[in-house]
Write the structure tokens for this entry.
Amino acid sequence: MIIPVPVPAEALEAFASQIPPGLLRPDISVEFACAARGGRALDSLYEGAIADAYCLEAGARAEEEGFSAVCINSMSDSGVTALRSRLSIPVVGTAQPTYHLACQLGRKFSILSMWDRWRWLYDKALHEQGLGNRLASIRTIGVRPDTAELLAGKEDSVFPLLLDAAQRAVEEDGADVLILGSTTMHQSHAFLEDRLSVPVLNPGLVGFKTCEMMLDLRLTHSKRSYEAPERVADGIFSFA
């Protein structure tokens, strides 16, 4: 599970906590890692391009180290298509499987976002998947994300804002499924799920379970769609 921006060890533990013990299987181990370098909040297409590069580096290293699957733990799906070209093991994004699951659960979904400056990454994935017509709305609460602390300590201020945005998405925008707009928001999932009458998808868990499913079914991406390169240059972004 690769976080597409560099974060401290404590933040990796917070990201890992999104998978409850009851969903972990004894035959599958999960390791969280992050990009070696890059931006901090994916605030622009510029930072997105940097994240693509360092996720490519981290994913290539994961296959070399013997991992069975790679998941980009972000709604940016950073580097996913390039990794599918480079690797033979399954590569899963977080946005793609979450959007497609939402389409199975309802007719229209809304994305609950912390920040207006994440709009580009939603537009990117929705365009790539041709799912713009299934989007009811993107509701943002105007709070800059914190990739180190996530939502810890912000429950009293942030959770009510997210709940209000969620209720507006359902009542005013016609959403019948809601999606958390970032894996950094996973701590709000239980709060929202308990207070809303529609499904609320936690994208980190959807990505994780999609990895499990692909491993169980012995599936990986089609090399007809994601052709392997004639020559690899995995160390190009590393510095001695």
Q: What stands out?
A: The beta strands are 2-3, 33-34, 70-71, 91-92, 109-113, 135-140, 177-180, 200-201.
